[in-house]
Structure formats: C-alpha cells, structure tokens
C-alpha cells in the first residue's frame, strides 16, 4: 500500500495509462512481488528515441503526481538518457530505447513470464 491508499494495482494502471498516452511501445509488466519486497510490479517500456524516452518518463512522473502520489524518485529524466527509471513505491517503471532494452534484457534477468497488455 502506498500514499493516499493507492494500491499497487491502481499505481500500475495509472503508470501504464501514462505510458500509453505518450505512445510508449512494447509495454511489459512483470509481477515481481513474490521475488522481492522492494516492489510489486516492474513496468518496462520502449521509446523510439532518447527524447521520447524522456517524455515517457516525465509523463509517468507528472501523471502520478496528478493522482496525488509523490514518486520516490527518478533517474535519467532530462539528461538525454537511453534509460529513465521512475520509482512509484510499489511499481518501478523503466523506459528505454530499443538498444538499451535489448542490451539489459530485464525480462530475462528477472526470468519472469511477462503479463501481456
């Protein structure tokens, strides 16, 4: 449970909505709650360029703030990065370029079957 009594599922829904609003590609949700106490869900999304990755991360951050949730933090926003991370308490969002996503392959690292949206 997180700020303002938002459940992890509600935070997840808002985060996915924010990614879809800015045309995020290949949005994948990993349910990692049984593997770690740090979060319930990990969301991985692909952006078409570093600028798009930044816009996606910024939209997630701002959208959740608009829902009353103060994100714990983010890394890579506004830096021309190929990977932006937004920590939303029970949900962590990773937005990456196609190249970064292929290189780091977080889905394989966690070895969890992704939930298809």
Automatic annotation (TrEMBL):
Which family is this protein grouped under? Answer: Belongs to the Iojap/RsfS family.
Q: Subunit arrangement?
A: Interacts with ribosomal protein uL14 (rplN).
Q: Name one GO biological process term.
A: cytosolic ribosome assembly
Molecular functions per Gene Ontology: ribosomal large subunit binding
Classify the main location: cytoplasm
Q: Identify the GO cellular component terms for this protein.
A: cytoplasm
Native source organism of the sequence? Marinomonas profundimaris
The answer, when asked if Metal-binding is one of the entry's keywords, is no
Checking InterPro entries in the record gives: Iojap/RsfS/C7orf30 (IPR004394), NT_sf (IPR043519)
Which key words are in the record? Cytoplasm, Repressor, Translation regulation
Task: Name the domain of life this protein comes from.
Answer: Bacteria
This one is known as Ribosomal silencing factor RsfS
Name the HAMAP family for this protein: Iojap_RsfS
Q: Where in the cell is it found?
A: Cytoplasm
Pfam families per the record? RsfS
| The keyword Magnesium is annotated on this UniProt entry | no
The protein's job, in short, is: Functions as a ribosomal silencing factor. Interacts with ribosomal protein uL14 (rplN), blocking formation of intersubunit bridge B8. Prevents association of the 30S and 50S ribosomal subunits and the formation of functional ribosomes, thus repressing translation.
